[in-house]
Design a protein that fits this description.
single chain; 128 residues; mainly alpha; 6 helices; 70% helix; 0% strand; globular
């Protein structure tokens, strides 16, 4: 039995919240060491990593609550595309082998959120 169509907006909100929380924790790892970063990622952040961390922290929080979902998700989608092509693609063609699978998935999840919006359980929906 398929999931009823009436669940679509609710499940869109769940996807948004889960993706936002996962993304947010990358920012808290960079700035607050929570969770502790993997070995080799400690020490002062370079300007590119500071920018990425700020986008992860602020953008992730906005995605979680569903505020300005479409423009924030569009920016984060672009950020993840750049991250994939700068950090992962030079290491090989296949995302599962070059470590870029999370970046690729976040890119397309955020692109979908930019098109679909935040769903029924979002600040954006209550503002309408």
């Amino acid at each position: 039995m398929p999931i009823p169509d009436s669940w679509s907006s609710k499940l869109l909100s769940v996807l948004r919240i889960v993706a936002g929380l996962g993304f947010l924790h990358h920012g808290t790892m960079k700035f607050f060491h929570l969770p502790p970063p993997p070995p080799g990622m400690s020490g002062p952040l370079n300007p590119l990593m500071m920018t990425a961390g700020a986008l992860e922290l602020v953008g992730g929080a906005l995605i979680v609550i569903g505020l300005f979902t479409r423009p924030v998700a569009f920016i984060l989608s672009g950020m993840m595309a750049v991250a994939y092509f700068m950090a992962h693609a030079p290491q090989g063609l296949y995302p599962a082998l070059n470590g870029g699978e999370p970046a690729m998935l976040y890119c397309f999840i955020f692109l979908y959120l930019a098109a679909a919006g935040g769903g029924i359980w979002s600040v954006d929906a209550t503002r309408k």
